[in-house]
Amino acid sequence: ALPRDLEGRRVVVSAGGTREPLDPVRYLGNRSSGKQGYALARTAVQRGAEVTLVAAATVSLPDVAGASLVRVGTAEELREVMHRTAADADIVVMAAAVADFRPTDRATYKIKKTDRDPDPIALTRNPDILAELVQSRVNGQVIVGFAAETGDSAGDVLEHARAKLKRKGADLLVVNAVGEGKAFETEDNSGWLLSADGSERAVALSSKSHMASDIWDAIVALIEA
Ligand code: PMT
């Protein structure tokens, strides 16, 4: 049986990948399936937490029993819901893959194919939701970020991730080495857990539920410290 060590804790988990529309039928997106975020939400419910799952483009995943679900599309929508729900959460976990940029213009009608060369797509920077949540953190709240990194070696990946943890100011950063067939859309995940206090731990390749349990163990350890 799982420990009930999240009993009475209010948890918000974001999952999936945002979609940034170009026109009514097309978008810029990413390969996040939402599986890792859903596994985190499911495990938190099982460990006794009151869970809100904020899901971006995860239509094919079955709902998490016992969690309240809020669906979002764009990074702007995710931002609005995260700020609202984080305001009275004890723990916030940003597992969603958020688009860093969105098309500057959203066409009202489907963009037509013409004989001339297409116009380039102008992009506008999206806000960094995780960094904002850290800025508006309420007392004692634990904030967990993820990092999807590509690199030639574990050393490269960790170096980028340590800098990201500092820059964003989260309490814990879950680092996934991504790339061909890794982390996105798969059943298994692996990586490292980096804490703001400098402690680091590798998580061997295992199911996303197993990874979720390890992440919650690390969060509970932070709360108890
Ligand atoms: O969904 P799956 O298919 O199961 O795959 C899981 C996963 C690989 C997507 C997941 O484990 C993961 O790594 N998610 C974060 C991916 C990501 O967007 O990483 P990043 O390095 O771009 O962002 C770093 C952190 O900042 C993340 O917590 C992200 O949610 C947050 N962020 C990023 C950009 C932005 N504008 N706002 C943010 O809050």
Automatic annotation (TrEMBL):
Free-text cofactor note: Binds 1 FMN per subunit.
Which intervals hold domain DNA/pantothenate metabolism flavoprotein C-terminal?
6-221
Q: Which GO terms describe its biological process?
A: coenzyme A biosynthetic process; pantothenate catabolic process
> Which residues does CTP bind?
100, 110, 127-130, 146, 164, 168
Q: Where is this region: Phosphopantothenate--cysteine ligase?
A: 11-225
A single Gene Ontology molecular function, please? metal ion binding
Pathway(s) it belongs to = Cofactor biosynthesis; coenzyme A biosynthesis; CoA from (R)-pantothenate: step 2/5; Cofactor biosynthesis; coenzyme A biosynthesis; CoA from (R)-pantothenate: step 3/5
Q: Which domain of life is it from?
A: Bacteria
- Which reaction does this enzyme catalyse, per its entry? N-[(R)-4-phosphopantothenoyl]-L-cysteine + H(+) = (R)-4'-phosphopantetheine + CO2; (R)-4'-phosphopantothenate + L-cysteine + CTP = N-[(R)-4-phosphopantothenoyl]-L-cysteine + CMP + diphosphate + H(+)
Query: Any idea of its EC number?
Result: 4.1.1.36, 6.3.2.5
Enumerate the cofactors the protein uses: FMN; Mg(2+)
* Keywords assigned by UniProt, alphabetized: Decarboxylase, Flavoprotein, FMN, Ligase, Lyase, Magnesium, Metal-binding, Multifunctional enzyme
Q: Which GO terms describe its cellular component?
A: phosphopantothenoylcysteine decarboxylase complex
User: Hey, which family's this protein in?
Assistant: In the C-terminal section; belongs to the PPC synthetase family.
Question: What does this gene product do?
Answer: Catalyzes two steps in the biosynthesis of coenzyme A. In the first step cysteine is conjugated to 4'-phosphopantothenate to form 4-phosphopantothenoylcysteine, in the latter compound is decarboxylated to form 4'-phosphopantotheine. Catalyzes two sequential steps in the biosynthesis of coenzyme A. In the first step cysteine is conjugated to 4'-phosphopantothenate to form 4-phosphopantothenoylcysteine. In the second step the latter compound is decarboxylated to form 4'-phosphopantotheine.
UniProt name for this protein: Coenzyme A biosynthesis bifunctional protein CoaBC
Q: What organism is this sequence from?
A: Actinophytocola xinjiangensis
Q: Which residues of the full protein are shown?
A: 185 to 409 of 409
